UniProtKB/TrEMBL annotation:
Pfam families xrefs: Aminotran_4
Recorded GO MF terms: transaminase activity
Protein name per its UniProtKB record: Aminotransferase class IV
Lineage, highest ranks first: Bacteria, Bacillati, Actinomycetota, Actinomycetes, Propionibacteriales
Family as reported in the entry's similarity comment: Belongs to the class-IV pyridoxal-phosphate-dependent aminotransferase family.
Cofactor(s) of this protein: pyridoxal 5'-phosphate
Keywords: Aminotransferase, Pyridoxal phosphate, Transferase
Organism, scientific name: Solicola gregarius
GO terms of biological process kind: amino acid biosynthetic process; carboxylic acid biosynthetic process
Length: 308
């Protein structure tokens, strides 16, 4: 098929289902897929910026490690997945994209409840880039420390395997909206800070960065920030982050593939620092976007390729 042309059908994105590349609006998964009925799935999201994937290998490493931990057999190998993601971006014609790949346990075989017997399924799609906080929103994120729920414990669901167990995060979102904010931050059962729906959290304390060690996804943006901070001579710690520290920090920010480095300017209606984007956050945000043209990190999309 000639989905390499970025025609109108593909303008909202391209998806891969059952060996076919289709416009994202037409993509369908089977109703009985346990990715849907049991959240038995892992996934990853890699960004495309200026026509190039950002840290593609690191995202694929995390994805394939997650599949292995869930004892899934991915139907495509690593180079086939790489080619597929490239093909989806090419089909969409997007220069800035949000590219997701997921592996589900699959569909139960004739009434069997034994997950070892299912054929695991791979899906993927490329859609326009998604922002948790749009860059023009200089006011930053208004965070709410969630009271109604705690982050699911790591010994129940491994947060380092990117997953769809978003019940706690979604509940946190509703609480944040109810309380007049938009960006929940969840604590764990010990009362320590974890993360929010789709983002890691950093605090700037005495000029140094602190980000939670456990109960969180090991975000690729988090890793990028830790590397860039070290290059800029900032000290960094991955450790427990207590709620009072969050409230006393001079700056706070969130990190995600969907938006990069995003300033958190208030917590529960109280300003962080002077309530504006701090200079550590602003410098790291600049460094993060500059890194998108750093050869260490980028894999250009092969838009000219005609290979199917
Ligand atoms: C729960 C959670 N934490 C953190 C992140 C940020 O991870 P990354 O920087 O790899 O996008 C995500 C990304 O979707 C996430 O779902």
């Amino acid at each position: 098929m000639s989905e390499t042309r970025a025609d109108a059908d593909f303008a909202r994105g391209a998806a891969y289902v059952d060996g076919e590349v289709v416009p994202v609006d037409q993509a369908r998964i089977p109703l009985l897929d346990t990715g849907l009925t049991r959240s038995d799935v892992t996934y990853d999201v890699v960004g495309v910026w200026g026509g190039a994937f950002f840290r593609l290998d690191d995202h694929l490493d995390r994805f394939l490690r997650g599949c292995e931990r869930l004892r899934m057999t991915v139907p495509l190998d690593r180079s086939e997945i790489t080619e597929l993601l490239d093909r989806l971006v090419r089909a969409s014609g997007l220069r800035e994209a949000y590219v997701e790949v997921m592996c589900t346990r699959g569909v139960p075989t004739s009434g069997s409840r034994d997950p070892r017997t299912y054929d695991n399924r791979l899906y993927a799609y490329a859609i326009p880039y998604v922002w948790i906080l749009r860059p023009e929103e200089e006011a930053g994120m208004d965070a709410v420390v969630v009271r109604s729920t705690r982050r699911i414990p790591p010994d129940s669901v491994d947060p380092t395997v990117k997953n769809f167990h978003w019940g706690d995060l979604t509940r946190g979102l509703f609480e944040a909206y109810d309380r007049g904010g938009r960006y929940p931050i969840l604590l764990d059962h010990r009362g320590f800070v974890t993360e929010g729906p789709g983002y890691n959290v950093f605090a700037v304390v005495d000029g140094a960065l602190v980000t939670p060690a456990v109960g969180v996804l090991e975000g690729i943006t988090r890793r990028t920030v830790l590397e860039l901070a070290a290059e800029h001579g900032l000290s960094t710690t991955i450790d427990d982050l207590e709620e009072p520290t969050l409230r006393q920090a001079s700056e706070l920010f969130a990190t995600s593939t969907a938006g990069g480095v995003m300033a958190i300017t208030s917590v529960d209606d109280s300003p962080v620092g002077d309530g504006r984007v701090g200079h550590v956050t602003a410098n790291l945000r600049d460094a993060y976007w500059k890194a998108h043209s750093d050869q260490r990190y980028v894999t250009p999309v092969d838009y000219a390729s005609r290979t199917q």
